[in-house]
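Moderator note: this is an archived Q&A kept for reference. The question asked for a predicted structure of one protein chain; the sequence and the answer are reproduced below.
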Amino acid sequence: MRQDLAAENHSVPNDAGEFLFLFFGREKLPNNSSEIHMLPKTHVLLLLLSLMPVCAFGQLNVKPALVELELERGKASGAFDVTNITDQEVRVRVTPAHFMLDRMGNLNTVPLVPTSLANWLKLNPREFTIAPNAVRQIRYAVIAPDTLPEGSYWCSVQFQPLPSAEDSATAHSRFVAISGILVPVLADKGTPSCDWSIDGDSLNTQLENGRHFVSVPVLNRGASRIPCSLHYELFDQVGSLIDSGSTPRMNVFPRSVRDFGAPLPSELKEGTYDIHVAVSSDRSKQVLTNAAHISIPLARK
């Protein structure tokens, strides 16, 4: 749960998302690679970081950091602004890819499926060079089948700087972390609907590294994504409100479960408390609620 909070709780609730990835290949290590030395060199690390309107990492800025589209007659279009923030020329490759979110909110790239938006996303150009401190506009268009059913569709666009000729010349014996950016593209066709509930009858509470957390699993049974947020209130045994908080807006994808987690105050005294939670979305008049008695300290898990 703490990974989910670290990813999304230090952000503005505008549902913009920045996705960064690190690839390991047989290239030269950069000077600032200390943060990746513990990772397996054959794996891909995907990080969901703080929400902001611009993705910035390494050599590039990409704007917007999130694309949300309405598919009228299956079509939509727009553009990305890609900025080279270095004093050297950078060559970039742009590739559509499909992804899924697990219940903790971790992003995983997966093979294309027939309903992935990546099947209908056109990018121009797909590979290009940006001069130092220059901006290049990349146009996109979605042309989906007219028979596409109503619901939500998504993919990501990967902006990957390519190794320079100098780096390639020294690639025979060392490893490099090639940084890049994944920008989510979320599209809805028709009127979004909500078929959702809290998955199970009770709240989940746990103790991690000395900190108490509460989490609520939200189940989306429908075909549309549900952007929603959690609000909690914590009361002592005489009914006094001692703490409250909210999560940023997060998406529950179609036919999936998403855990919404929030940390409780670190200074809670031993005793019994009542906690009330409410999950709301601007796509539904229904507010999901639940309540529970919790005892502090919780059993460590």
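Archived answer notes: The chain has two helices and 22 strands.
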